[in-house]
Structure formats: C-alpha cells, structure tokens
Amino acid sequence: VLVLDDSRPMRGLLRALLQDLGVGHVRDHADAASAMADLRRRPADIVLADWVMPPPDGLAFTRALRAEPDAVL
Asked: In 1-73, at which residue ranges do the beta strands (DSSP E only) sit?
C-alpha cells in the first residue's frame, strides 16, 4: 500500500492502522512527485491519496497516475 498525504501525523496514523490490519508493506510520501517516482519503480496494489494537498492535490495525482502508459488499473 502506498500512502500519499502531506500531513506527517496522518501518514503515521494510516501506516499504523494498515500494519495493525496485517498489511505487510506500507510506503508513504508527503508529495505527489515522490509518490509517482516510487510507483514508477515499484507498483502498489492500493494507493491512498489525500484529496486536499498543495498542488497537485489527490485528484490531480490520481488523474496523472491513470494517465501513466504502464498503469495497471
């Protein structure tokens, strides 16, 4: 699971919750650029993206991710 959120406390909370639920690998990023670069190297089964972030927001990130040529949707 990849978590994208500009709030460090929220990333930590989501990481802890996912790990408590048994998710073995959680990666987190504070900005869309680093998240996208990570996903290009290592795809994720699930992406949780914050909707309200400094540009690009979660919606723009999702659109960019879906537009990736190798995106598996």
From this structure: 2-4, 27-29, 47-49
Q: Which two tokens stand for residue 23?
A: 């998710």
CA 28, 31, 34, 38 dihedral sign is positive
Alpha-carbon radius of gyration of the chain: 12
On whether the CB atoms of residues 40 and 71 are closer than 8 A, the answer is no
Distance CA 54, CA 52 (A): 7
For residue range 28-48, list pLDDT tens digits in order.
999 999 999 999 999 999 999
pTM equals: 0.89
